[in-house]
Write a structure and sequence with these properties.
Strand order of the largest sheet: 1-2-4-3
Radius of gyration: 18 Å
Bound molecules: zinc ion
Distance between the termini: 30 Å
């Protein structure tokens, strides 16, 4: 249930689960002050639902923790899902320094989503380098978009686990589709976040060593995930806007004309699928 693999070797979920047991102790007494109280704004209304907490950074990461806190990125995702869904069990989003790799992860053993401070710095560095090569967009804004998409992706793993949702196909693809489903329902900020995630996957794909390609990886290749998000963006566009605003998405490379012709159907299918999966669990709001 790793999110971004980057250019480095990917860690199987089984390895993560084993490691998670070792690092499961979070806010110990010694760290209680640094961990701080659980965010009230993101506290679930009942015994279940999503909550947010932050661990003290270790060996750097204070700027990234502050970035998350000031923008309330985890809190906003938690509030959105708590408002929309009845969740009988707790799901905790934990901002923290991760040990070796900085890959965000949902751990079914603990019900926690780890959001690694190092991942935030890595994404921002990629966007800053991209900006210097002439690409448009504010690096902080694009980083915030990727983090929000990441949180929805990991939340999808948590919902599949806690609500025992049935699905077919690769869970990683389904989780990407959930991120697109939630973000594309949020207007322009959500669209910008999903485009930032598509751009970020394209950067990972550009920087990857072909020798590291792993056909048995549970994730689709980064270039494929990038194309998927561009496709959903294009497919969700109102028909009258498609010719103008969204034409740039179909660049013939990251998204081809042939795939673009399928995208409205793909987007409609994923939205219908997730609506049906969540229908028994929706609140009335
Ligand atoms: Zn995943």
């Amino acid at each position: 249930m790793l999110h971004h693999a980057g250019a480095g070797p990917r860690i199987p979920a089984t390895v993560w689960r084993a490691r998670a047991l070792v690092v499961a102790g979070v806010c110990t007494a010694a760290l209680a002050t640094a961990c701080g109280p659980r965010s009230q704004a993101a506290a679930p209304p009942t015994g279940g639902g999503l909550s947010v907490s932050y661990q003290a950074p270790r060996g750097g990461g204070a700027d990234e923790r502050d970035f998350l806190r000031e923008r309330r990125l985890p809190e906003k995702v938690a509030e959105d899902l708590n408002r929309s869904l009845r969740l009988p069990e707790r799901i905790e989003i934990v901002g923290r320094s991760c040990k070796k790799d900085d890959t965000p992860e949902y751990d079914p053993e603990t019900g926690r989503i780890a959001l690694c401070y190092g991942f935030i710095g890595e994404v921002r560095s990629m966007f800053e380098a991209d900006r210097s090569s002439g690409a448009e967009g504010d690096a902080d804004e694009r980083t915030a978009g990727v983090i929000t998409e990441t949180l929805y992706h990991e939340a999808a793993h948590a919902l599949i686990d806690k609500l025992d949702l049935p699905f077919t196909g690769r869970e990683e693809d389904v989780a990407d589709q959930f991120a697109a489903y939630r973000l594309l329902g949020q207007g322009e900020p959500g669209r910008a976040a999903l485009l930032a995630a598509a751009d970020n996957y394209a950067l990972y794909a550009r920087d990857a060593d072909p020798a590291d390609a792993d056909p048995s990886d549970e994730h689709a290749p980064d270039a494929v995930r990038s194309a998927g998000y561009r496709c959903y963006l294009y497919g969700s566009a109102p028909r009258h806007k498609r010719a103008a605003e969204y034409r740039a998405l179909v660049d013939g490379k990251r998204l081809t004309k042939e795939r673009a012709a399928l995208c409205q159907g793909e987007y409609d299918d994923l939205r219908r699928g997730w609506r049906q999966l969540l229908a028994p669990h929706m609140t009335d709001r």
